[in-house]
Design goal:
One of its GO terms (cellular component) is cytoplasm. The chain has 485 residues and is α/β, with parallel strands linked by helices. It has 13 helices and 13 strands.
Amino acid sequence: MKFFSFGAIVSAVVISSSSLALASGLSEGTRSQLAGHIAKYEPRMTEVAHQIWSNPELGYLETATVDALTGELEQNGFEIERGVGNIPTAFVATAGSKSGPVIAILAEMDALPGFSQDSIPVQQAVEGIESGHACGHHLFGAGSVAAAIAISKWMQENNVEGQVRLYGTPAEEGGSGKVYMVRQGLFDDVDVVLHWHPSDQNSASQGRSLANVSAKIRFRGESAHAAMYPERGRSALDGVEAMHHMINLMREHIPQETRVHYIVSNGGAAPNVVPDFAESYLYVRHPNPAVVQDVMERIEKAAEGAALGTGTEFSVERMSGVYSVLPNDTLGRVLDSNLRTARQIEWNDEEIGFATELQKTLRATPPLSKVGEVEEYSFGEQGFYSTDVGDVSWVAPTVGLGTATWVPGTATHSWQAVAAGGMSIGYKGTRLAAETLAYTAAELLQSPELIEKAKAEFDEARGANFSYSALLGDREPPLDYRVTK
C-alpha cells in the first residue's frame, strides 16, 4: 500500500478569505435556466424527501429509497446501472454525451437506528418506526437528484457536451459504501465529484476529516468452571484485556493526533465461567491514512501477542475503513461563489415559530438569522469526523458544501435534526443545495480550464507516488451489518 507524504497537508495554513472567492463564471441566462428547472422540480423533490423520511431505511437495506430515487431519474431520461460495487442498493445514473467532462454528484440515503422522531419541535417518536434520518440523508439524496435533473435538462437545451452522473451511495453510516464503489473503479473516469450535506449553516469551506479503520478482534479460548477448574480454562476475555493493555501502552508511541477507541462487545456470559469467546470492537483515526494503516497493523500484532500470552486464538475482521477527505481549494472557491449567488433561505412565520420552540431544547442557540447567511470561506481546517467521501476524494477532485436544513445550533445525529428534516425547514435548505450544485456543475462544464486547475491541485496534493488501496482490504460489503441478529 502506497501513500504520499502527508506532512505538508497536515501543516497547511488555514485560508479564510471570502474576499478572495472567485466571482461566479455563469451568465445570468444560464443561472436563470437552472434556477427555473430547480424551482419546477422542487415540489416533487420535497415529496421524494418526505417519502424517504417517512420510511427510513438503514445501511445496505435502502431498497424503497433506491426505487424512489432511480424512479425519478429514469422518468427524466437517465440510464440506471443498479447493484454496482457488489451492493444491491448502490447505483449509477447517467445522462449526457460520451464526450466532454464527466461531473459526478453523490447521493447518500441511509438512516440511523434509534432515531424515530415526528416533525414537531418536541421529542416524540413516531409509532411503528424505530430509525430516523438524524443525518439528513433523505434530503441529501433528494437534493442531489434534483440537481442532476436540472443539469441534464440544461445540457440538452443548450447542446452542452459532457455527462452528469448521480451516484447512489448507500451505508455511509459505518458501512463504507462508497469505498466498495471506489475499489471497483466506478470513479476512475470522473473529472469532478460534487456533494453536499445537511447542516445548521450554509458553507462551502473545504476542510479535512479523519481517516478511520474499524475492526472486530475476536479471541477464542476454552471454557471451564472458574472456581473448580480454572487451570483447565483459557480465557478469551484475558486475551481482549491483555490486548487493550498493550494498546494503551502504545498510545505514548504513536503520532499525537491518533485516536483509538474501543469497547468490549462480548466479554462472556457469567462470572463463574471462563469465557471461551470475547470480542473487542475498536476504531483507529488519524488525518493521514498511512498512519491509520500502520497503527492498525501494530494493534493486530498486539492481538497476536495477547493470544500467545493467554493461550488463546485470535482473528481480525476489518468492518470499515475510510480515507480522510482530500480538499480542493480551486473547486471550493467555485462552489463558494455559486452558493453566494444562489437564492438564499427565507423562513416564514410558521418556520420561525418551529425553530424558536426547537431551540429551547438545544445547548447552543445561534441567531436564527444565520440560515439566510453564508459562512466565510476557509480552506484546510481539520475536522474530527470520518466519512467515506474521503476515498472518493483521493481518486477524483472532490468538493462539497453544507446548507441549513436544520435549526441553528442543532447537532448532527440528534432528534432535532430528524424533526427539522421532516418539514419545510429541511426542504428549503435542500433547494439551496440543489441550486448551488447545479450552478457549479454548469460552470465546470463550460470552463475546462477550471477542471484542469482543480486536477493539477489534486495531483500535487496526492503526490506522485500515490496508489489507492482500500483501508478495509479486499473484504466484501457487510450487507447485513445493520441486520438485528
